[in-house]
Structure prediction request, 167 residues.
Amino acid sequence: MESRGSNSPPEPASVRPPSYEGVWRFTAPAVDVSVPQARHAVRDLLRRQQVPVVDETVQCLLLIVSELVTNAVRHAALLSPEVAVEVAVGAAWIRVSVEDNHPYRPKALEADHGQTGGRGLMLVREMTADAGGTCGVEQTASGGKVIWAALPLAPALTSRRVAPSAL
Prediction:
């Protein structure tokens, strides 16, 4: 898994953002083994950067990464032999996104409970809303898509918030 990180140039101490803020991008082949690799890379990044995030939010983020990378591997690999996972951390939020080059923009489906799959995006949407975050799908300049979820670093105060979602 290839990794690239970028941080802003140093600023004066009085306006310097917390050291954990930044944007990191990992690329991997669109194959099954990339799912746990992406999940472990995100977990390790959060630890290495000492992001002040509660375990409940970390577990939610890791499940979201697993679902989104799995979907890219299963449904986009033919047109996108590589996927990218991006982690952006701000002072009070964290956003994970998965990008592929397939043009189809999926929607969360209410799957039949008898099916063994098909509920991944619905799960992502519900977990994101429960955490007080938002999620969506955007088209890339190259015609592919980015599916993302942004969560607050601190857990939501209510058990279920309604968050707008494009999924």
In short: Residues 18 and 95 are 16 Å apart (CA to CA). Residues 55-76 form the longest helix (22 residues). The two ends are 27 Å apart (CA to CA).
